[in-house]
Design a protein that fits this description.
The chain is mainly beta. The chain has three helices and 13 strands; from the N terminus they run ααβββββββββββββα.
Length: 266
C-alpha cells in the first residue's frame, strides 16, 4: 500500500496549473510525476479482493477474430503487490489454462502457467515476461499489478483526451528485463484513472497502445474499465478485453492463490 499523496490547497493548485513544465527543474518534474502515481494508487487501495468475467477478442491484421472466455480473481496484499489468477473457460483447446501472478513492489514478479494438456505448471522466467500471453497483444508483464515502485516517473504535460483533462506522465520500468524502454500514460485529473498508455520497445520505438474506457465506479470508490484494447503498431494485431460482473470483497484468501490451486481449477 503506497504512501498517501497530500493534494495541494486550491490556491497552490491554481498557481501550479498556470506554470508550464519548462518552469520546473528535472527533479521537480520527477517528483510531480511520482506524486500523481502515488495518488492514483492511493485511490485504488482497500478493495480487498475482486472477481470478474471477461471476453478476450483476438484480431489479426486482416480483421479475423477469435474469442476466448476468461475468469479473473484478484487479491489485494497490503505489504506487497496484488495476486491474481486468470482462468480460461472457452474454447475447448484452452479450457483450464490458468495464469497465477504474484506481483511485487520490489524485484521480479512471480508467474506460473498451468497447461491442462500437459497437466503441469510452468514457471514463467523473467527473461520471457515480455513475450505475448496466450497469443494476445498483452505481455506477461502487462498482467501484473502496476505497483508505483516498478517505475521511475516524469511529469510531461497536461492535455485533453476524450474530453477529459489528463496528466501525461512518462514512466520507465525499473526492471532491466522489461520489454519496454518507457511508457507514456494519460491519467485523468479528476478521478486519477488511466485512460491511455503508449508502450515503447527496447529500441525506443512505439510498439503498442492501450486504451481503457467505459469506466464504472463500484462501492462508491473503485473505478474499473469495462473495455481495454491493446493495439500493436508493429504487427497490426489487437486484443480487446471486455469485462463484466465485477464483484468485490468476496472473502478470497491466500489459499485461493497458491500453486496447488492451479491444478484444482474447474
Amino acid at each position: 500500500m503506497s504512501a498517501v499523496f497530500q493534494q495541494p490547497t486550491a490556491r497552490a493548485a491554481l498557481a501550479l496549473a498556470i506554470l508550464t513544465t519548462a518552469a520546473f527543474p528535472a527533479d521537480a518534474l520527477e517528483d510531480r510525476g511520482l506524486a500523481i502515481a502515488r495518488e492514483a494508487d492511493r485511490r485504488d487501495t482497500g478493495f480487498k479482493d475482486q472477481t470478474a468475467e471477461l471476453t478476450m477478442h483476438l484480431r489479426n491484421r486482416h480483421g479475423e477474430e477469435s474469442i476466448r472466455q476468461i475468469r479473473l480473481r484478484v487479491l489485494e496484499t497490503p505489504s506487497d503487490g496484488d495476486k491474481s489468477l486468470v482462468v480460461f473457460d472457452h474454447p475447448g483447446d484452452v479450457k483450464g489454462t490458468a495464469l497465477l501472478t504474484f506481483s511485487h513492489k520490489v524485484g521480479s514478479d512471480d508467474q506460473w502457467l498451468f497447461l491442462p494438456s500437459l497437466k503441469r505448471v510452468k514457471r514463467i522466467a523473467s527473461d520471457n515476461k515480455s513475450g505475448p500471453f496466450m497469443g494476445s497483444e498483452f505481455a506477461y508483464e502487462d498482467l501484473t499489478s502496476q505497483e508505483v515502485e516498478k517505475y521511475r516517473y516524469k511529469y510531461l504535460r497536461e492535455e485533453a483526451l476524450g474530453g477529459l483533462s489528463c496528466h501525461v506522465l512518462e514512466r520507465i520500468p525499473v526492471d532491466p528485463k522489461s520489454g519496454y524502454s518507457r511508457q507514456v500514460v494519460w491519467i485523468d485529473t479528476a478521478e486519477y484513472r488511466i485512460l491511455k498508455a503508449d508502450f515503447f520497445d527496447r529500441k525506443s520505438e512505439l510498439m503498442k497502445t492501450l486504451t481503457l474506457d467505459t469506466y464504472q465506479q463500484y462501492e462508491g470508490r473503485f473505478w474499473r474499465a469495462a473495455r481495454m484494447k491493446m493495439v500493436n503498431h508493429q504487427n497490426g494485431k489487437e486484443t480487446l478485453l471486455v469485462f463484466r460482473n465485477y464483484r468485490f470483497r468476496n472473502g478470497l484468501s491466500e489459499g485461493d492463490f497458491d500453486r496447488a490451486s492451479l491444478e484444482r481449477i474447474r
